[in-house]
Amino acid sequence: MASPSQSPSRTMASSHQRSASVMDTAGPTTRGDNKSYFEQHREALIGDIAMSFEHVLANINKLNRSLEAVIAVGNEFSSVEALWSQFENVMAKDEDGDNNGRQGEQQGHGQGQEQQQQ
């Protein structure tokens, strides 16, 4: 930390010198133009991976919008489905009533025929 007697410009200059000296000790491979083949290849691969992630994200968003559209269309048919379900339930009750009535008629006719034969 700078003492109150030091000027702000001098403090900034000394911090700049420290960062420059840290860069000098890191070696020549970390400088912009003198990158090794490995570092250049790594940066290219990282760029490709980043671009691939962007494509994946875009495709996931597109899929999400498509699924939302499918759900919206499905929700539009909910009232039609409810109407057909109600119709099916009414028809099932009528069939049960008709079958019970027919069975009673068939039993009644069968007994009447037996009594007539005797």
Quick recap:
Belongs to the DASH complex DAD1 family. With 118 residues, the chain is an all-alpha fold.
Structure keywords:
118 residues; kinetochore; cytoplasm; disordered N terminus; 3 helices; mainly alpha
Number of helices: 3
Radius of gyration: 43 Å
Largest sheet: none
Strand content: under 5%
Helical content, roughly?
Answer: over 70%
Unreliable stretches, pLDDT < 50, 5 or more residues?
1-29
Number of strands: 0
Protein name: DASH complex subunit DAD1
InterPro entries: DASH_Dad1
Pfam families: DASH_Dad1
Biased composition (Polar residues): 1-22
Give a topology summary.
Layout lengths: L7 H19 L10 H40 L1 H40 L1
Explain this structure.
The chain has 118 residues and is mainly α. The chain is built from three helices and no strands. It has helices at 8-26, 37-76, 78-117. The longest helix has 40 residues, at 37-76. The relative contact order is 0.03. Residues 1-29 have low confidence and may be disordered.
